[in-house]
Amino acid sequence: MAKLTRKSYQRKAMVVGATAFAGIALMATGFAAWVISSSTTKPLDGTVNIGVVKAQEIKINATLSTDKFSFEPLKNDTTGRVRWDGTNFESLTTTLTGDFSPASYVNKFTVQLRIGTEQEIENAGTGKTVWETNFETAAGTTKNYITLPEEVWCKEKAFDISSLSNKAETTDTKKFSQVISFGWGTAFGGLNPSEYYDTGAGKAVTDEVLKQTMDDFYAVMTKGTAETAKNSIPFRVIIKADTSAA
């Protein structure tokens, strides 16, 4: 057995101690370098809602103060060269009133006046019916027998929905009103012929010219139509509540 001196033993013990320390350090360093993890999931639950399809009908209530326009003599005018026969009399104005709901769905609200049956108006499309052409001729600058209700005549008059009043019972029902009026033209001094030919400049018109003018007025208003329908010309007030995008 080798004999260790005190000095050599101490030196050997130091080497062994240093080696042991290095081993511990190596082991500690090795464990610290390895990081091991595993995947994790966490579910979050919710729902998918599909909106129910509902039909929302726009309701329009409307009335006319009268359903007849009459180009006739003044009522109770029983004197002069043109007079009332005791039956039909002048009626050139009607007032449309009503309401529509739910107003919040309506983007455009319009009113228009057309002359003719439903089929005639449909056939005319965006054009004019025979009746409407006749009326426009009577109102034209070469005749001037009548005036037309320009705001709604064969075109849509649009209402400012936001300015319409609410119906008392609900804030989502809007009220509307529209006066629709024909008139007598400058050919009759803006007066009913039964009045014009008995006053002012009309008194100077001869009987012959008076008759010719009145015959022409009737012919222009009714030409191109069936004889049986001449005294009763249909009209239609078209009210439209449009829900399409503005």
Unreliable segments of 5+ consecutive residues: none
Helix and strand run: HEEEHHEEEEHHE
Oligomer: single chain
Mean pLDDT: 86
Overall description:
It is a single chain. The chain has 246 residues and is an alpha+beta fold. Helices cover 26% and strands 19% of the residues. The protein has five helices and eight strands, in the order H-E-E-E-H-H-E-E-E-E-H-H-E. The protein has helices at residues 6-33, 118-124, 130-139, 193-196, 207-222; strands at residues 59-64, 93-101, 108-115, 146-147, 157-159, 174-181, 183-184, 235-242. The strands form three sheets. A three-stranded antiparallel β-sheet has the order 1-2-6, with no helix packed on it. Helix 3 (130-139) runs antiparallel to helix 5 (207-222). The longest helix has 28 residues, at 6-33. The radius of gyration is 47 Å and the shape is elongated.
Chain-wise SSE layout:
Blueprint: H1 6-33, E1 59-64, E2 93-101, E3 108-115, H2 118-124, H3 130-139, E4 146-147, E5 157-159, E6 174-181, E7 183-184, H4 193-196, H5 207-222, E8 235-242
Antiparallel strand pairs: 1-2, 2-6, 3-5, 3-8, 4-7
Helix pairs in contact: 3-5
